[in-house]
Fold this sequence. Notes:
Number of helices: 8
Largest sheet: 7 strands, mixed
Shape: globular
Radius of gyration: 18 Å
Helix content: 25-40%
Amino acid sequence: xxxxxxxxxxxxxxxxxxxxxxxxxxxxxxxxxxxxxxxxxxxxxxxxxxxxxxxxxxxxxxxxxxxxxxxxxxxxxxxxxxxxxxxxxxxxxxxxxxxxxxxxxxxxxxxxxxxxxxxxxxxxxxxxxxxxxxxxxxxxxxxxxxxxxxxxxxxxxxxxxxxxxxxxxxxxxxxxxxxxxxxxxxxxxxxxxxxxxxxxxxxxxxxxxxxxxxxxxxxxxxxxxxxxxxxxxxxxxxxxxxxxxxxxxxxxxxxxxxxxxxxxxxxxxxxxxxxxxxxxxxxxxxx
Length: 287
């Protein structure tokens, strides 16, 4: 069986296909490491059909505060809907895991953050790479969806390839997560499988946990974040509400709250593990 490259999610072969053309704004991003040692690192994962653009400002603010930040582009994202439909959650997770281990090599404390599907991937990393994940920061994590049509997904996949997209659920005008305007159904089916597996493993998550949820989320129902808050084994669960934001809260009115709470989580974990200070929050980071 052909192996997949953990960076691209594509099958390896004697003559690998060239990298797909990445649309403007969807490139991966990495912030500079902090000047001091030991360092705190953060891995931030974007959502399904989205791109690094949705979490990059979150990462840039954390990097400005002295943290080392990696924002990968998950396979099939930021290029074309057809590319995404050729991938599965195993591809997205493999790349996230590879970047986590790379950040862990450089840093003594690692926080994994995720938006929507990125939150589901972060939770899986917290279970299966527990020794490399010191804390988890989630924004509108997707461990279940509220669309009743999902029960018909196996049949719907036989009738059509995609459906209208859900990108840019943002209250603040003029912002975009650089996402797809269509949802490919084969990839969606894989995403549904990822969520089912994560739900089963929630009791195995024991790291300090930040769960931020938006009041105006039209993509993921409130009970998804509620389930994450109540089903894990973590003794440190931070419930953060975002009253002015939609699903992509990292680009919305409450983005400064997400940054401030992530910094607080990182500092608390760094202190408890004996790591050095994670720096000073940038001006305007606290709403």
